[in-house]
Amino acid sequence: MTIAPDLTAQILRYHHAERWPVGTISSQLKVHRDTVIRVLTQAGASPIIPAQRPSGVTPYLPFIEQTLKQFPNLTASRLHAMVVERGYGGRPDHFRHLIARHRPRPPAEAYLRLRTLPGEQCQCDWGHFGHIKQGQAKRPLMAFVMVLSWSRRIFLRFFLGAHMENFLRGHVQAFESWGAVPRVTLYDNLKSAVLERKGQAIRFNPVVLALSAHYHFEPRPVAPARGNQKGRVERSIRYIRDNFFAARTFTDIDDLNAQADAWVAGASSQRPCPEDAKITVHDAFEQERPSLMALPATPFSCDELRAVSVGKTPYVRFDLNDYSIPHTHVQRSLTVHADLREVRILDGQQVLATHRRCWDKGQQIEVEAHVEELVQHKRAGRAHRDTDRLVHAIPQIQTLLKEAAKRGEPLGRTASQLQELLNVHGRTQMTAAVADALNRGVPHPNAVRMALERQRQGQTPPPLGVALPEHVRERDIAVRPHSLSGYDQLIGDQGDAND
Question: Residues 268, 194: one domain?
Answer without folding.
Answer: yes
